[in-house]
């Protein structure tokens, strides 16, 4: 396959050795692969820590040239209903692998987006088709995967990457792409990435499209243009009792960046601590955030819930 | 019948819609497919007939009672659009009561219409009360939308008065005002009420009480916002035709006009609790929870205020759905690009959307453009 022009693909590790920062997980998994005996796997952890990459490597190592015929990747956040599980996945697992005895692999990315019904349907399939298929599920929050599925999987928890593997990656990339990246820029990229490798690479490619010399000020400039940071303004509007404007702006941000209510509430929590109000009030708002997040999970209308959070600032 | 006698015959007799009428006339003459929308009794259907009269056009009307599915749409619209009119100068195909088309049962009807659209040689006018309904999503894009504004009660009063004078009806001014107000901007209803309240050409409103059976949403809002009595608030939704989701949206939209500060905060908290019960109803299919949902929507909101706002507030239609729709259109290209990227890079569309600011900078590289096979429109979007 030709190399991609998108760096996250071009520099995606192709062997277990190339994966950085997840040594313990790699050790266990590569021994499964060596014995050609893979249990169902559940990868949980934040974005950009290597979950999909490792799933892809497993398939390539197990099936070599025929990996694409024996590997199905679906992203549950695109098709999250029971229909997908019943039709697409079931059709796939019912037949035997091509050209090998090793069970084929279904990689279900962002499995925490699957509805409960879909997960229930999946659970039966995991038992029924063990002779023909193995499941690798990945998710951000393990708690959103129902217990019966968790109990059928070997669970691996991925942690955000630390600074060392990230700066190694940055150095490797700058060598390959002939970029100049100074120490301060590395610090900046690390800080913004929050341990997310995909983001590191995207920031680098973004910066490189502007200049071959990457400085910390370029990094901040690019990221402040890219990050939906207007949220702070929304909070300030609400605090200054301009509820209507705050509400309108919030809706606009959500729609423009395709953010869900939960995404927003996560960011509000972070932002609250930087507001110019007394600490006591900050704590009150945090408490309210928690309550609203709970109601969001229980309720039906995310935007309504967020409005009620904003109104509590008044 | 007064409604028949005074239904507008010419454009001059349609009140308060000058802008809309001008636009309609232009569209009909230039064969621009048009949707007229607005609440009932504002003159949508009448204006099409009045216009046809004026232009010496023929109207071919198909309303919801006779057009439904794909085949019917095709034969009716197809035939109507191809036959020449014998005596008239032109022809208007009018599809009235669009709202009556069921999205599921009459599957294919709207799609068939959309498919026929490029072939239709005549002026095409559709009429709907609720054009923002999601079943009309694809329709809205292809048509020019003209809104018929809901007239205020003073305008209706003036018309009622003029008619009463002409018909030599004996009336009390305040009774006419009452009629105008209770019509909620519906000319037809106002005329109907006038008709039914006549006893030997005397206006007597006592007979009328039966008519206003379904409460209009405005009245429910007023009850909830203006009372401090939980019982009154609780019964506010009793005769309402709108469903609870819509009520919640209306409340949300208009709350900030009635309540401020802590009151507003408390009221929104109450709406939020109502929504939690709605979520539980959906997930557990346990409809008893509706009792609690209604309690928080009505009494909860009503009792959130310390005192009522004495001023008159003009309640407005919920704008959130509309805003979401507009933004969706605006973001359609971003979504399309994100989908392609997500597939290429083993991630989800949602995650790409969230980091779009980073991607946007380097996607225009010509190797990437060809790798992702982006089309002209998408490239143009990335450039802007």
Quick check: average pLDDT of chain B? 84
Percent helix range of chain B: 40-55%
Helix and strand string of chain A, N-terminal first? HHEHEHEHEHEHEHHEHHHHHH
Rg of chain A, Å, rounded:
22 Å
User: Quick one: overall form of chain B?
Assistant: flat
Beta-strand segment tally of chain A: 7
Largest interface: A-B, 58 and 53 residues
- Rg of chain B computed from alpha carbons, rounded to a whole number of angstroms: 25 Å
* First-to-last CA distance of chain A: 57 Å
Overall SS class of chain B: alpha/beta
Low-confidence stretches of chain A: none
Protein structure class of chain A: alpha/beta
Helix amount of chain A: 55-70%
The coarse silhouette of chain A is globular
Beta-strand content of chain A: 5-15%
* Alpha-carbon distance between the two ends of chain B: 59 Å
**What strand order characterises the main sheet of chain B?**
2-3-4-1-5
How much beta of chain B, percentage-wise?
5-15%
